[in-house]
Amino acid sequence: MKHFLLIAISILLVFDIFPQRNVSGVVFDDFGEPMIGIQIIEVGTRNGAISNFDGEFNITTSKDITSLRFDFLGMLSQTVEITQDTILNIALEQDTVLLNSILLEQNTRWRSINVGIDYDFANSLFGLSFNNGYHQRGLAWCGCMIPRRHFLYKVNAQTNFESDYSFGASLMWNRSNSRFLNRLLWHTTPSIGFQQYNLPSQDFFLRDISLSSFVYTRLPIDFTLKVSNQTLNDFNNWGGAVGLQRRFRYSSFYFGLIGHYGASVGYYFDYLTYSAFLRGQIGWSSFSYQLTYDRINNHNFFNIGLTYWLSWRRR
After folding, report:
1. Three-class secondary structure of residue 33 per DSSP
2. How far is the CA of 108 from the CAs of 104, 225, 312, 315, in angstroms?
3. Are 68 and 59 in contact (CB under 8 A)?
4. Could you tell me the pTM of the whole model?
5. What is the mean pLDDT of each run of 10 residues along the chain (315 residues)?
6. 20 to 30 Å CA-CA from 19: which of 71, 119, 251, 277?
7. Could you say which of 3.40.630.30, 3.40.1160.10, 3.20.20.80, 2.60.40.4130 is the CATH number of the domain covering 2-91?
8. Quick one: CA torsion of 50, 55, 60, 63, rounded to 10 degrees?
């Protein structure tokens, strides 16, 4: 009995002398994307943890009242005081001074471009595209593979090497929101676009001039808004489309996938449009894939494509 009491008292003394707190949560960047590899350090100790692929972390402190510091290269460090067991949602902001110096160095010494090939199974069209991160935005791990630029562009063309062809271009303003909008937990990227299809073998002509925007939230679901003027054969209408997209992530020690999928519906008075897509990064590589389906009035488009991120050092 005495031994039992001594053991119980010893355990109580240990817990009283070395009180601990359990802290868990998720770390986001200023685009609302979960951040992998964030260092979480208990200030004044060697105790720490690192956020996983989904931005999640868990740490047990060595003190009853302590502070945790969140660090990542290119982001402003953030320190949080801990007085009890808690769950945290941490939003790290960009270190604009450091990032601007890195971006200047990168733009001075390096150049990069995304080169893509695709095939439209519904219309037998082969395609080629170039962009500087337009579709790959938000797909690359930690944003490391896609430089942060103010403007993102995309140009594309398709042909069946006979009479049918299509071409288009888009320009996106990859803007940073004001602090007010960041508090509302979204990030907007407006863009203008032009796309034309000329398929005489199928008696189909379309010209689309659009103004659209992606609305990224800190939730898994984002939004797309579009207003455009379309010339479809004998029709010329103003209309718009609304869509939703959802991000997904999967990781293991050897392989990972990151991407998003979504769908939208458009109304142009004389007809409707439908669209669905799936885009993602392939493993830890420089390749990304995309599958898109579009239905405009009664005409279908089904594209599958592969894109490679190419970079070279400027002389």
Report:
1. coil
2. 6, 35, 11, 9
3. yes
4. 0.66
5. 56 53 87 81 90 87 90 85 90 70 54 88 95 64 49 92 95 64 60 96 95 77 91 93 84 61 94 93 78 94 91 64
6. 71
7. 2.60.40.4130
8. 80
